[in-house]
């Protein structure tokens, strides 16, 4: 199994740690600039000084409360040279035509259809349906059971609430928040 460090040790990090047992990766520890504790190996600077980039992948497990700042952390990770593997639950269905960037977290019971594209460091929660030819930009959180219909485009740093629906051929602009249960038909 490939070893990964989780950058972010809050509730979301704990959830991803648990999910790793359904992937090809094993948990090596948390990196956190905020939280201290038994499984916290150190902060970001400690990571840079003490871990071999060839031996460990890094998973961004900072939550969605500040998406622009989360994206800055992603940019710093890219500059550091650490790999950002896609963490994909074994119980997800992803068509082999899907273009996946790096650092995405794709949870159980997701369905990603033909010719969809997911950029980098997005989080796709259980039950999400991403239909054909959809484009998901970087750093997008798709909450449980949301549906993105065909040819829709989702902008960077966007949050889609639980059970929301993005109607086909709609574009959701960057830095946008869609409430739970909303049917989005465009701006």
Description:
This protein has 187 residues and is of the alpha/beta class. The chain has 2 domains: 84 residues, Rossmann fold, CATH 3.40.50; 100 residues, UDP N-Acetylglucosamine Acyltransferase, domain 1. The strands form 4 sheets. A 6-stranded parallel beta sheet has the order 5-8-11-14-17-20, with no helix packed on it. A 6-stranded parallel beta sheet has the order 6-9-12-15-18-21, with no helix packed on it. A 5-stranded parallel beta sheet has the order 7-10-13-16-19, with no helix packed on it. Helix 1 links the parallel strand 1 and strand 2. The termini are far apart. The mean pLDDT is 96.
Average predicted local confidence, pLDDT: 96
Task: Report the C-alpha radius of gyration, rounded.
Answer: 16 Å
Widest beta sheet: strand line-up? 5-8-11-14-17-20
How far apart are the first and last residues' alpha carbons, in Å?
45 Å
Question: Which key phrases capture this entry?
Answer:
single chain, 187 residues, Rossmann fold, UDP N-Acetylglucosamine Acyltransferase, domain 1, 2 domains, 6-stranded parallel β-sheet, 3 helices, 16% helix, 29% strand, globular
Describe this structure in a few short sentences:
With 187 residues, this protein is an alpha/beta fold. It has helices at residues 11-19, 44-50, 67-80; strands at 2-7, 25-31, 40-42, 56-60, 87-88, 93-94, 99-100, 105-106, 111-112, 117-118, 123-124, 129-130, 135-136, 141-142, 147-148, 153-154, 159-160, 165-166, 171-172, 177-178, 183-184.
């Amino acid at each position: 199994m490939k070893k990964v460090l989780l950058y972010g040790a809050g509730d979301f990090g704990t959830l991803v740690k648990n999910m790793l047992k359904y992937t090809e990766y094993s948990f090596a520890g948390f990196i956190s600039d905020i939280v201290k504790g038994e499984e916290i190996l150190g902060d970001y600077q400690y990571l840079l000084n003490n871990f071999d980039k060839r031996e460990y992948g890094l998973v961004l497990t900072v939550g969605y409360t500040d998406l622009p700042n989360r994206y800055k952390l992603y940019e710093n990770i890219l500059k550091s040279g650490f790999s950002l593997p896609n963490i994909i639950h074994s119980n997800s269905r992803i068509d082999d035509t899907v273009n996946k960037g790096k650092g995405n977290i794709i949870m159980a019971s997701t369905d990603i259809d033909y010719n969809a594209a997911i950029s980098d460091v997005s989080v796709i929660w259980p039950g999400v349906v991403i239909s054909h030819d959809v484009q998901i930009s970087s750093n997008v959180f798709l909450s449980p059971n949301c549906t993105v219909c065909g040819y829709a485009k989702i902008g960077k740093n966007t949050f889609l609430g639980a059970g929301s629906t993005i109607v086909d051929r709609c574009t959701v602009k960057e830095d946008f928040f869609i409430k739970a249960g909303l049917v989005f038909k465009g701006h």
